[in-house]
């Protein structure tokens, strides 16, 4: 509602009250029914979908048991980022004290002999052990021969003398990715049909879902609450690990430098190649951090473990802060985006997320911030998504809120399957808030399946110019489908509002019992290729917090009006005088007045 209309409404209200007319004041609030008891997050299989990490590379998983099995090929690395693929290797898993005399590996065209040694567990086999030592932690043994692993796919056989013991098959090898034998073909060697497997980036993590013990969290939204992320940084005492897609806020940079000055161990990890290039506003921030002795690294480049390093989180001592927003004025700075965030204190989750950070930060595909700054061509971000700073009212403050359970989800390790599970458990309602959604996203398919079960679904999307056409087309398609199928599924694009510039949240509320907050956009790339971090929070109070924000954003400004500050005192005084003068004539709640 514009300012002129507010003034008119206020004046009319004063005149009506002062005249002593009968007034009916009614306050209504729409409250959705909630169950008598809130369940915690449904149980899930916490094992990750990716291949298991072996804590002791020299001892295979089966070699530590009494299981009798034949040696087998469990891993292959045909396409490293080395000249002529020098250092390529295969990994055998063997029983304890296996003698490899007369064993060979062949692709059907050439063969290489395995050295006559006694081994246990997992060992890497290579024709160039020095190069391979740089690529794996497994013990490396030198093959004798000219075996080459084909990048465009190959069939490999493991032979004991003239007897074929195991066969595996892989298709075209992505750059810097390792082939891992499928779990259901892991316990036995195969000789008839080659064992299949999946590709996983070299040194990518494979962590299970982590559950915390926190019974309280502080939800917040942006642009309403830009101070909470800064306060979290300012209050850190021992360690501070900040992960993001971009960092362009000088204020955040200065807070990080201040933390380092007071003795906090501060580390920052950023995406090296964001879409459209690295914004020029990043360069002075990197300089500030470098001058302030804050350790910064950028992750990315050829064959990188993740398509994009896209999370937005901080670990501050035992606190975990997860948001949907970049470390930018338009994001956590509160100058533009509608985002969701949450802060909680939990020793287990903080340690587990710190382990993820450390694995990403110390990876082979990261470079120091100073080197990144020197080698990067920064681009003018004029006309970009974050060019318009604004000032917005603070309508939703942070609220310490009871929670029943919390899970740490990370992509690509485990997030997609868990979000799908939570959507599949929906009984009554799903609220989805996203900047945009890919039509073929698996989480969207799960949401539509829920609508077929009778779940009420509302999806709210961004309407800024770079999203509007695609989002409008998706909304039309989904609503037409919902009409044809008789589904309770609505899709809306946020209307023009004076409370934020655009939707950047990536949030879900399920049955007003579970809220999912984090960085993952609803598309295949986010869940399957990107590094993303999310929290799944169970509890009526915290889910209702985000649901209330969702509903207000869905409704837009059409039913909202606020009294201009300069008129508010006048109206209050006028109402008080009118009440004194005309209290004999004013009746509240008169059923005859509509």
CATH class of the largest domain reads: Alpha Beta
Please report the distance between the alpha carbons of the first and last residues: 24 Å
The domain count comes to 3
Class from helix and strand fractions = alpha+beta
- Named at the architecture level, the CATH assignment of the largest domain is 2-Layer Sandwich
Tally of strands: 29
Oligomeric composition of the shown chains: single chain
Residue runs with pLDDT of under 50 for 5 or more positions: 1-38, 53-66, 559-594
Average pLDDT for all residues: 85
Question: What amount of the residues lies in strands?
Answer: 25-35%
- Per CATH, the superfamily of the largest domain is Endonuclease Chain A
The value of Rg in angstroms is 29 Å
Give me the CATH fold name of the largest domain.
Endonuclease, Chain A
């Amino acid at each position: 509602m514009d300012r002129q209309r507010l003034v008119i409404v206020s004046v009319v209200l004063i005149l009506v009250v002062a005249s002593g007319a009968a007034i009916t004041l009614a306050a209504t609030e729409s409250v959705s029914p909630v169950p008598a008891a809130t369940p915690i997050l449904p149980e899930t299989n916490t094992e990750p979908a990716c291949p298991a990490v072996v804590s002791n590379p020299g001892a295979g998983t089966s070699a530590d048991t009494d299981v009798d099995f034949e040696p087998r090929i469990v891993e292959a690395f045909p396409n490293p980022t080395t000249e002529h693929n020098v250092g390529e290797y295969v990994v055998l898993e063997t029983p304890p004290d296996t003698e490899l005399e007369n064993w060979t590996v062949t692709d059907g065209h050439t063969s290489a002999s395995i050295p006559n040694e006694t081994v246990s567990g997992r060992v890497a086999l290579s024709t160039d052990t020095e190069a391979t030592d740089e690529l794996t932690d497994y013990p490396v043994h030198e093959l004798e021969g000219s075996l080459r692993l084909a990048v465009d796919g190959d069939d490999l056989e493991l032979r004991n003398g003239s007897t074929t013991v195991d066969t595996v098959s892989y298709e075209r090898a992505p750059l810097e990715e390792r082939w891992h034998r499928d779990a259901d073909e892991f316990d036995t060697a195969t000789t008839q049909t080659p064992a299949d497997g999946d590709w996983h980036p070299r040194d990518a993590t494979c962590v299970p879902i982590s559950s915390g013990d926190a019974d309280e969290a502080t939800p917040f939204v942006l642009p309403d609450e830009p101070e909470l992320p800064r306060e979290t940084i300012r209050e850190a005492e021992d360690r501070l690990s900040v992960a993001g897609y971009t960092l362009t806020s000088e204020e955040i940079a200065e807070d990080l430098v201040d933390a380092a000055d007071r003795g906090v161990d501060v580390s920052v990890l950023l995406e090296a190649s964001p879409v459209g290039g690295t914004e020029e506003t990043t360069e002075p921030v990197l300089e500030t951090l470098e001058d302030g002795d804050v350790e910064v690294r950028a992750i990315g480049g050829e064959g990188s473990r993740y398509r994009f390093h896209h999370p937005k989180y901080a670990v501050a001592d035992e606190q975990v802060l997860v948001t949907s927003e970049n470390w930018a004025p338009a994001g956590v700075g509160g100058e533009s985006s509608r985002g969701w965030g949450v802060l909680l204190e939990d020793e287990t989750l903080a340690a587990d997320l710190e382990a993820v950070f450390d694995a990403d930060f110390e990876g082979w595909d990261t470079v120091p911030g100073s080197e990144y700054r020197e080698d990067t061509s920064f681009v003018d971000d004029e006309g970009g998504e974050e060019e318009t700073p604004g000032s917005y009212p603070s309508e939703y403050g942070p609220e310490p809120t009871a929670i029943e359970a919390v899970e740490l989800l990370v992509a690509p390790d485990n997030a997609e399957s868990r979000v799908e599970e939570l959507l599949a458990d929906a009984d009554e309602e799903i609220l989805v808030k996203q900047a945009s959604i890919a039509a073929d996203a698996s989480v969207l398919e799960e949401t539509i399946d829920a609508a077929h079960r009778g779940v009420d679904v509302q999806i709210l999307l961004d309407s800024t110019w770079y999203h509007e056409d695609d989002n409008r087309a998706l909304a039309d398609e989904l609503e037409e489908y919902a009409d044809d199928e008789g589904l309770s599924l609505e899709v809306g694009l946020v209307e023009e509002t004076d409370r934020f510039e655009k939707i950047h949240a990536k949030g879900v509320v399920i049955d007003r019992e579970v809220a999912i907050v984090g960085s993952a956009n609803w598309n295949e790339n986010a869940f399957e290729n990107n590094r993303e971090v999310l929290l799944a929070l169970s509890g009526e109070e915290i889910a209702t917090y985000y649901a209330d924000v969702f509903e207000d954003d869905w409704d837009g400004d059409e039913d909202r009006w606020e009294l201009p500050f300069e008129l508010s005192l006048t109206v209050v005084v006028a109402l008080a005088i009118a009440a004194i003068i005309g209290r004999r004539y004013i009746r509240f709640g008169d059923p005859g007045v509509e």
